[in-house]
Amino acid sequence: MKRLLIVDDEQIVREGLKAILLKNFPEIQIEDAKNGTIALNKAVIFMPDLVLMDIKMPGMSGLETIQKMSEINPNIKFIMITAYAEFDYAKSAIKLGVKDYLLKPSKASEVVRAVGKVMSQIDEEKKSKEKNIHQQTVLQKALTIVETDVVTQLLFDHVHEIHLDELVGLLDTPMTSEKFVMSILLPHDSKSLYTEIKQKVRKKGNAWVGTLYGRQIPIIVFRKQDYSFRFQAITLARDILSISGGKAGWFIGIGNVCHSLETIRQSYQESLIATKDSSLPVKYRFYSDISITDTIIDGHYSKKLENQMFDQIRNGQWEDILKEVTSLIEFYDKKGANIIEAQQRVLELLWVASRVLNEIGVELDSPLYFVQINDFRQLRMETNHFLNQMRQSFIDYQNQVEDDTIRQIRQYIIENSHKQISLDGIAQKFKLSPIYISKLYKEQLGVNYISFLTECRLEHARKLMLNPEKSLKEVTFDIGYQDPNYFSKVFRKMYGVSPTEYRKSLLGAKT
């Protein structure tokens, strides 16, 4: 119900206006005041949407009252009703944002027309406000999807140049020149705490949270200039670990700082390697604190060999993996190394392999040698057994994907591109890892997932723009975007012209 306040020092005027308005607007709640002071008090308690204000009143004038009332509530609308037609009054009223100016005595029809017009404006503003609130809510949900997709693409794929700058801009994160990755390792029964972890990280306002991969959550953190890297990382790690309540199985690995998003994958791989020993009393570890001697091993540095395995596992290069691990064992054998030392080193590489398999959706327990390793021949045999098990698990996972699954995913994206879909959502629908879907998409269709989704949306936009009755803002929402500026930037980068320019040429060609 709308609220209207009549302010006039003449009771007969107040009663007359009230009778006219109740007859024509029975749904309006009306109160009155005989002077500015009373009107100001009622403005606080009654909170009117519209005020009919006399100019000349004892004490505080109508113009003064409007000025003070607007300070209390800038959304109040005003209509002046006065016997004075001087230009100066009208000019002052206009400056104060008065919506209409009626002279006494006014006809009932004039009062009804003026009030009806302002009430319509109030209705439109209310609808617009509600729509904006709804759009902001939808936008926040969309940004959550954007955030997890950007993290996935940065760490496991490559975001197309058309999108990265705009996506980063949409997320509105205070980015800095230095960034690093933290990988959270959860126990199997704590996956339901993902939302709580995300909220905890978001309070810091300087990180992007990826989706949950197996038991792992990757976080891209932007280093604050006011804090050291280690202080910021330790503080965030402790905040996250506070959610665990001391429960076993939680661990956080922290990668080194890098200086570009293009090299962020290195920090991610380092963060995963840092979680290799989750039995440590302190439940977080920096990659830089891992004491591995950078001795050249068969032409490869130790750390380089670990990092190399990430891509080999993801690409299913099992022959290369077997060759690398076998070469490492032979190196230790020829070196005359202690068998326990060699076993531990090989086990660490197998651990990397199992962690990467877990990341793409292949659930494996951490590898452990269940027999006493007495010599290098036995170490080779047991290690080959582990690698063959991993290889078979990888193949079995691939076989779950029928030949036409990627085509089904492609069709699903085409049909739902106007909705807020994400890699994570598609992965849940098709019961596959989002990383694996991204990999399959590129291999089988030769295009990045985000690029294909964008192409679908923009193609839909071009069809909608044929309708001159549909605004570009409506087109933006209809194709699944929530920000017209973002839509315009992506459209221009894809087609070389703005949506407005494209529509003009399109409609001009049809006439």
Topology:
Blueprint: E1 3-7, H1 11-24, E2 29-33, H2 36-45, E3 50-53, H3 62-72, E4 77-82, H4 87-95, E5 100-103, H5 108-156, H6 161-171, E6 179-185, H7 194-202, E7 207-209, E8 216-222, H8 229-241, E9 251-254, H9 264-273, E10 284-286, E11 296-297, E12 300-301, H10 302-314, H11 318-335, H12 339-359, H13 376-400, H14 405-416, H15 423-430, H16 434-445, H17 449-464, H18 472-478, H19 484-495, H20 499-510
Parallel strand pairs: 1-2, 1-3, 3-4, 4-5, 9-10
Antiparallel strand pairs: 6-8, 6-9, 7-8, 11-12
Helix pairs in contact: 1-5, 2-3, 5-6, 6-19, 10-11, 10-12, 11-12, 11-13, 12-13, 15-16
Pfam families: GGDEF_2 (PF17853), HTH_18 (PF12833), Response_reg (PF00072)
Modified residues (4-aspartylphosphate): 54
InterPro entries: CdaR_GGDEF, CheY-like_superfamily, Homeodomain-like_sf, HTH_AraC, HTH_AraC-typ_CS, Sig_transdc_resp-reg_receiver, Tscrpt_reg_AraC-type_HTH
Describe the structure.
The chain has about 500 residues and is an alpha/beta fold. Among the domains are: about 5-105, 3-Layer(aba) Sandwich (Rossmann fold), CATH 3.40.50.2300; about 175-290, Alpha-Beta Plaits, CATH 3.30.70.270; about 295-400, no CATH class. Helix content is about 55%, strand content about 10%. The chain contains 20 helices and 12 strands. It has helices at about 10-25, 35-45, 60-70, 85-95, 110-155, 160-170, 195-200, 230-240, 265-275, 300-315, 320-335, 340-360, 375-400, 405-415, 425-430, 435-445, 450-465, 470-480, 485-495, 500-510; strands at about 5, 30-35, 50-55, 75-80, 100-105, 180-185, 205-210, 215-220, 250-255, 285, 295, 300. Strands 2-1-3-4-5 form a 5-stranded parallel β-sheet, with helices on both faces. The protein has a 5-stranded mixed β-sheet with strand order 7-8-6-9-10, sandwiched between helices. Strand 11 and strand 12 form a beta hairpin. Helix 10 packs parallel to helix 12 (about 340-360), helix 11 runs antiparallel to helix 12 and helix 12 (about 340-360) runs parallel beside helix 13. The two termini are about 50 Å apart. Keywords: DNA-binding, Phosphoprotein, Transcription, Transcription regulation. One of its GO terms (biological process) is phosphorelay signal transduction system.
